[in-house]
Structure formats: structure tokens, C-alpha cells
Amino acid sequence: MLLLQRLLWILILFPWLDFLLRYIFPDSISGLWDELFLFAIIIALWIYKKNENRFVVVPNYVKIPFLLYFIFCVSSMVIHVVPLAVAIDAMRVIYQPILFGLLTMYLSDNKMLLQRFFHWMYISAGIIAFLGIIEFVFQIDTSRWNHPSEQFRAVSIFSNPNAVAAFYNMMLAMLIPRILMHKQKRWIYSGIAVILFIALLFTLSRGAWIAFCMMVLYVIWMCNKKWLLSIPIATLVLPFVLPKSIIQRIMVLFDPEYYQMSSEYGRIAFWKEALERMIDNPLFGVGVGMFGDSVPLRHQIPFATWVDNHYLKIGAEIGVFGLLAFVVFVFSLFWLPHRSAKQANNSFTKSLYIGLASVTIVIAVQNVTASIWEALTVGVFYYAIVGIIFGLKWQEYQSRKEKISK
């Protein structure tokens, strides 16, 4: 059991280890470390938890769309005879991060352990964000991100500004409900949240900003609706306090020339191409890994491109029904903690469930303008956080069994 807990601390340090190993070793070596970590998790769980079938607490409305999504992925590969190397790589990118959720699923029934996990995860995220702020303020070019535009974007120890923005959003989604509903360590966590928010701004990721706003609206609605009155005030004040570079980034959205350029060769053009593939191949798409984003580009698939919309990319690759299954699966990962928050009998559990639901909001929204799920660290942390939902449901399931037995 101690081994499992130590693996949980490795999970907290995942962004740091991934950065260091990829910085020190070539990709052929450093790319294997996460597979070895996952292998250690599976072996440890088999040794210590093999008699606990925690999947009984996963509702059918989560299982069924997930299985359908998997079936359409496999079917698209078989029907279109996707090359084996591409198929393996694509399935690894999609499903490997999901398996990291097993660790938190089997350990998050311990309240004290869970509190320590979040405490150190917030501190780690705060340090990553602080480095991002320093990077932006002093315009330190770490060479981890090629700046194609004139504006400098902070990436901290990540390699992509959109990915690190998603990471900040997930941490903020867990922190804000806790700050609003708990006095314990409120000032410490408020300080970390401010650092994370500033670092989020410095990523210049507009999709992440929109996701953050939607998450905050949800959290306030669930925690204290009176705080909604502060939103108009914040909207009026922010333009006068935000840095010029951030204002410029926002104002581009109101520039017709931006949409014209995007329609010719940019995000909108990519979306149109994905829609055309989906319309031409509505049942099984063009095959997993054969159209958009990291996998087909890595394997030099002809006409591959960045889609910058995870949903359209999925629809183009596995078809309309596969996309619907995926959307329902993602919604179920929001609905389960959302419904549980309404049924929670104490403020700690309620704030935790609200945070867990909020994480799906920020990731689901940001994936409209980028394939954030394909970023390894983002995918690992997202599904690790999802695993906590089922760990909590297992705890509730055990409590009900004990009451019945008495």
C-alpha cells in the first residue's frame, strides 16, 4: 500500500519529471518513462487491490458511451485498414492517459491522503505558474515553444501555451470551490489561485480564457449565486488592469480581417476541412490517426493537418456516431460529479464534487479550439482527476453496504 502512495506522489510531480527527462534524454528514451510509470501503477494495483472491483460504481451512462466510442475507434481502423504503427500510436494517445485514473480511483477513498494529494498538487502547480510569470515578465525564451506570432506566450516547463493553460485551468477549477466553501488554508490557496490566474493570462490562450470564464460561472452558480453580481463589475474593471498584450489578444477576436485570414488558411479553414471529411465519411470517418493533429503529422500521413478542434477531429476520423458517443461520455463525466454535488451532505464533499465537475467544463470547452486531450500531461491529470470521482463513489458505496449489514 505504501508503494501505491509513493506512486501518487510521482503523479503530483508528473509535469516536472516529464520536463526533466525530455530535456536530458532523447525522445526515444524519455518517451518511454510514462509507459514505465503506468506499468508500475498497474502492477501495484494488481498486488494490493486485486480483490476490489471498483468498476461496479461506474454508472452505465458512463460505461456505455465509452464502450461505443472505443468500438467506433477500432471499427474505423479495421474498415480503413489503418497502418499498424499509426493505429497503435493513435490508440496510445487516446487511451493511455485514461489508465492513469486507476491510481486515483483506488486511492481517493482515504480523505486524509486525498487532502495531502491536492495540497501538494496545488503547491507544485503554483511553482510551475510562478515560473511562467517570470518567463513572461522578463521575456525569457526557453526554446520550448516557437513563437509564430509577434506576441510572446509563456509556457513554463510545458512545451505548448495551450497545454499549460489547460493545466492551470484544471488546478483553478479544483481550487476555487474550495476557497469559496472552506476557511481552512483559504489564504494560502487564494494566493496560489492568484498566481495560477496571472500565469493563465500570460499564456495568451483565448480558448483557455473562455473556458475559465464558463467554469467560474458554474462554480459561482453552485456555491453562492450572490457572487454573480460581481461579474459585471469585474467585466468593467478588467480592461483597465490587464496588460496591453492581453487586451490586444482579445481585440483580435473582433477584427474581421482575422476571420478572413483564418478562413483562408487557419483555424476556420481546418474546421471546414474536418467537416467535409465528416460529411463524406459519416459512419466511420477516415480512420483513427489518419487526419488531424499529432499522430498523423508524426507519421507524415498525406494531407494531415492541425484541426484545432478535438471534436471535429474525432468526427472526421471515426464518424458522426463515434463523435456523439465521445460527447456523451464527456458529458457523463461532468454530470456524475454535478449530480453528486447536489446530493452531498457536507461542504467538503460538495466543494470537491463541484471542482471535479468544473475540471470537465474547462477541458471540454478548451478542446473546441485545440486538441488539448492530446497533450500528455493534460490528459494524465484530467483522467487522474476523473478517477477521484469513482474513488469517492466507491467510498459511498462501501458506506451504504456497512449500513445495510448493520
UniProtKB/TrEMBL annotation:
Membrane-spanning parts: 7-25, 31-48, 60-84, 90-108, 120-140, 152-176, 188-221, 318-336, 348-366, 372-392
All copies of domain O-antigen ligase-related, residue ranges: 192-327
Lineage of the species this protein comes from: Bacteria, Bacillati, Bacillota, Bacilli, Bacillales
Main location: membrane
Superkingdom of the organism of origin: Bacteria
Keywords noted in UniProt: Ligase, Membrane, Transmembrane, Transmembrane helix
GO molecular function ontology, one term from the record: ligase activity
Entry protein name: O-antigen ligase
